[in-house]
Design brief:
Bound molecules: magnesium ion
CATH topology of the largest domain: Phosphoribosyl-aminoimidazole Synthetase, Chain A, domain 2
Shape: globular
Pathway: Cofactor biosynthesis; thiamine diphosphate biosynthesis; thiamine diphosphate from thiamine phosphate: step 1/1
Binding site for ATP: 121-122, 146, 211
CATH superfamily of the largest domain: PurM-like C-terminal domain
InterPro entries: PurM-like_C_dom, PurM-like_C_sf, PurM-like_N, PurM-like_N_sf, ThiL-like
Binding site for Mg(2+) 1: 47, 122
Helix content: 25-40%
Distance between the termini: 51 Å
Radius of gyration: 20 Å
GO molecular function: ATP binding; magnesium ion binding; thiamine-phosphate kinase activity
């Protein structure tokens, strides 16, 4: 069996069926066809992961499959979009059946959990690199943008931040403790906040997913919206595992570490009060949006002392 046939055989089970809600025409032709239902906007984004830069050398293929799709789909969550289909461009040093099957297993589990199907792809030979383009839809005009934050809005973050960044310390640990295993899970199997993103449509004034660290990503919202924010470091949600594993400088590490794939959002106060309880429970209010540009952190001594950035408008 040739390489092409091998790859086709391994990835075919992930392919969306022609004529399904997500795909008018699935893989196998020159292009796939997606019909966007009337009254919906198409939302799409591409992410590239390079071995040694975005994931470690010799990273487990199954985990890579999950992670690659989760990271791409997280951008759909940040827009409040419903996932539809994705394409995959895979550059591989060699086509090894065992590696491909493990990768497809991780990719397939993630696709099933996130409700997204493979629409097509391409493979080439070269250093291990993955590009995934994800497509989603939202009711017309309701996508969550980075640019809508206004002074007075509450700044909120979902879940907890910092675990995935801390996990990097334990990647080579042959026998991680329960706490280390908990933070490692956050790194290996990120869960994009799709349901939360959807539920925030019509409520959040701006949103972003936390891929580069809470401060950096919040900075993108502030810059796009032309506003600033005041954050209380004591309110930043940290997991119990993280608090047990790290002490000195943990807040700084948690707000500057990436790979959490939580959502950072701004919400006008009256809309916060109108949110369903189960949505509010997934969010922590950490501060508010201000007219003055830049990000001010109070009660974050180790953030300001360690880095010198107590006020930065250009993150
Ligand atoms: Mg993003």
């Amino acid at each position: 069996m040739g390489e092409f046939e091998l790859i086709r055989q391994i990835f075919m089970p992930l392919a969306g069926q022609s004529g399904s809600a997500a795909l008018l025409l699935g893989p196998g032709d020159d292009c796939a066809i997606q019909r966007v239902p009337p009254g919906q906007d198409l939302v799409f984004s591409i992410d590239t992961l390079v071995e040694g830069i975005h994931f470690p050398h010799h990273y487990d293929a199954e985990k890579l499959g999950w992670r690659a799709l989760a990271v791409a789909v997280s951008d759909l969550a940040a827009m409040g979009a419903d996932p539809r289909c994705f394409t995959l461009a895979l550059t591989l040093p060699e086509a090894r059946r065992e590696w491909l099957e493990a990768f497809a297993r991780g990719l397939g589990s993630a696709a099933g959990v996130f409700g997204i199907v493979l629409a097509g792809g391409d493979t080439t030979r070269g250093p291990l690199t993955l590009s995934l383009q994800v497509h989603g839809t939202v009711p017309a005009g309701t996508a969550l943008l980075r640019s809508g934050a206004q002074a007075g809005d509450l700044v909120c973050v979902s879940g907890t931040v910092g675990d995935a960044g801390l996990a990097l310390t334990y990647l080579d640990d042959p026998d991680p403790s329960a706490d280390a295993a908990a933070v490692l899970k956050r790194y290996h199997f990120p869960m994009p906040r799709l349901e939360l993103g959807r539920r925030l449509r019509g409520f959040a004034s701006a949103a972003i997913d936390v891929s580069d660290g809470l401060l950096a990503d919040l900075g993108h919202i502030l810059q796009a919206s032309g506003v600033g924010a005041r954050i209380d470091g004591a309110l930043v949600p940290l997991s119990e595992a993280l608090c047990r594993l790290s002490d000195h400088g943990r807040l700084r590490a948690a707000v500057t570490a990436g790979d959490d794939y939580e959502l950072a959002v701004t919400i006008p106060e009256h809309r916060w009060r109108a949110l369903a309880d189960d949505v509010r429970e997934q969010l922590t209010v950490v501060g508010s949006v201000t007219t003055e540009q830049g990000l001010v952190i109070i009660n974050g001594d180790d953030v300001q002392g360690a880095t010198g950035f107590d006020h930065f408008g250009d993150v």
